[in-house]
Design a protein that fits this description.
Chain lengths: ~55, ~230, ~260
């Protein structure tokens, strides 16, 4: 196991590379979700304001 | 000259732009002052040893002129956009690409030509070997119009944005990189005693291509950003 | 109109594409993760040690697929940009803008993993040779497209301007690809070829190809997810978007009530 982690002495370069790969792609998958929540919230906000305006003659 | 022809339109545009710049001729010195200051910063930062500066002189001059040109790009369309004449230009029946080519030519004449005139002074400030100076001037003469043409296309995309300075730099610098590589590369090769014709020829080829394509691209970009 | 045209127009309609993308995206992510895990197992455990580079070469299983994706994403972006500018198809505008951040992510991973590979192999984290410099320029191009898209308020105009910029920068893609052939570079030449023989042994090449497939499928999964949000943003005033916005809050309140 220790051999696997050290990767012939190159572990310090290999594992951060793989970590960057996983972390950046994880952010890439999550970012649309956050944006989606924000956009849907904005649409609802606009709807509310439009209805409020429509209520006043 | 018959009024109403395309030739008359271009002549009128050239005359108008030159007149407007002449009325604010002090402003034409701004890029020159900027370049002088930038070049002066390097000996202050790196130490005045002539040997150190000599090795990187050509590159520094190139970068200084590139950055000065970048700052000056904003003035290409801003005045016309703010008073509405840019829209009139886009709506005119004459080929927009040709009209924009005239505008870019005047812009180069009034911003880059003073920089070219001051380039030998900048090179001297950094101890550039005298033998390299002609190559530097040739490279700059080919590179600065190329930079103006490429820059014009990017400025057309961001015209009308209020705080577009940083964004413009971000858009334009990746496209400037090949010009810088070839231009400074020619000077560095000449300084090392190697053959320097090839990068200059590449710059020339790029310039010819840009002379034809950039005004067309600029016209298309303006139509997108003014729509 | 015939069935193909009808199908084409239907796919291009925002609510329809929203639904289809919503159904496909989870599958794409799932398949990509499974394939990626298989490829990582193959690369880290099964593949033998390289006689020249030792175990450090294993970075290739991350670095090369991401490099391929950085170019693929830009070509995808450019094709959709062209369609968006010429035919003004809304979906193409959205797909083009959605692919830019994904491409930027892959380019970033390529640069970082390459830098970490370079340190033990070349002795330096960075060098200004043709391939590395052009890949860095590619990252700046992506950031420029994303930045321009954010800077303009009207979404359709923003997409058109950013698409135009992307098309101007397309010339960089062949420069990145052919840089190792055209210039003397520190970066090694191509070992895996589409046509002709590849200079890499079987046990090392299959994890690479599986990871390449995994990243491609991931790209489409992420693209579908981002395109959905892009369509919502573009069509925010339309009924179908409003219904989704209202249904979303209804779902959230029921989740909150039960949780």
């Amino acid at each position: 196991m220790a051999d696997f982690l050290s990767m012939g002495g190159y572990g310090a370069y290999l594992w951060p590379s793989y970590a960057v790969f996983v972390i950046v792609l994880a952010i890439d998958a999550l970012a649309p979700r956050w944006r989606r929540k924000r956009v849907l919230g904005e649409i609802r906000g606009r709807l509310k304001r439009r209805e409020a305006r429509g209520a006043t003659p | 000259m018959k009024p109403g022809t395309t030739f008359a339109a271009c002549a009128a545009l050239l005359r108008r732009d030159l007149t407007l710049i002449w009325r604010r001729r002090g402003d034409a010195l701004n890029p020159v002052l900027f370049a002088l200051i930038v070049v002066a910063l390097f000996p202050l930062a790196l130490g005045p040893e002539p040997e150190n500066l000599r090795r990187i002189a050509a590159g520094i001059v190139f970068v200084a002129l590139l950055l000065s040109g970048l700052l000056a790009l904003d003035t290409l369309f801003r005045g016309d956009y703010e008073d509405g004449s840019l829209e009139q230009l886009v709506l005119s029946p004459h080929p927009l690409a040709l009209l924009l080519g005239c505008k870019i030519a005047v812009h180069w004449l009034t911003t880059a030509l003073p920089l070219l005139v001051v380039a030998p002074l900048l090179a001297e400030m950094l101890n550039l070997p005298r033998a390299v100076l002609p190559v530097l001037l040739a490279a700059l003469a080919l590179a600065t119009p190329l930079l103006s043409l490429i820059g014009a296309v990017c400025v057309a995309l961001t015209v009308g944005m209020r705080r577009s300075g940083m964004l413009l730099a971000l858009l334009v610098l990746p496209l400037y990189v090949p010009v810088l590589i070839f231009g400074a590369g020619a000077c560095n090769a000449a300084q090392a005693g190697l053959a320097f014709a090839a990068p200059l020829l590449w710059l020339g080829a790029g310039l010819v291509l840009a002379l034809v394509l950039a005004p067309l691209a600029c016209a298309a970009a303006l139509k997108i950003s003014l729509s | 109109m015939n069935r193909l045209t009808l199908w084409f127009h239907r796919i291009g309609s925002p609510p329809t594409f929203y639904r289809i993308a919503g159904a496909l995206a989870p599958w794409c992510f799932g398949v990509a993760i499974v394939l990626g895990a298989v490829a990582l197992y193959g690369g880290l455990v099964v593949a033998p040690r390289d006689y020249q580079q030792g175990d450090a070469y294993r970075i290739i299983f991350v670095h090369v697929p991401c490099a391929w994706m950085s170019l693929f994403a830009y070509i995808f972006l450019a094709v959709n940009a062209f369609i968006a500018l010429v035919w003004r198809i809304k979906l193409s505008e959205v797909l083009a803008m959605a692919s830019a951040p994904i491409g930027a992510a892959f380019t970033f991973i390529t640069l970082v993993s390459g830098s970490l590979w370079g340190k033990p192999m070349w002795g330096t984290y960075w060098t200004w040779d043709a391939r590395l410099t052009s890949e860095l320029v590619l990252l700046f191009l992506y950031l420029g497209v994303i930045g321009l898209h954010h800077a303009i308020e009207d979404r359709r105009q923003a997409a058109r301007a950013a698409s135009f910029l992307a098309l101007i920068g397309i010339v960089n893609v062949p420069i990145v690809h052919f840089s190792v052939n055209w210039w003397n570079t520190l970066h090694q030449g191509s070992t895996v070829r589409l046509m002709g023989e590849s200079h890499i042994t079987g046990d090392m090449v299959w994890p690479l190809l599986v990871m390449a497939l995994a990243t491609h499928i991931w790209f489409f999964g992420s693209l579908f997810a981002r395109a959905r949000v892009g369509l919502l943003e573009l069509e925010g005033g339309k009924d179908w978007a409003r219904e989704i916005a209202l249904a979303d809050v209804a779902r959230e309140t029921t989740v909150a009530a039960h949780g």
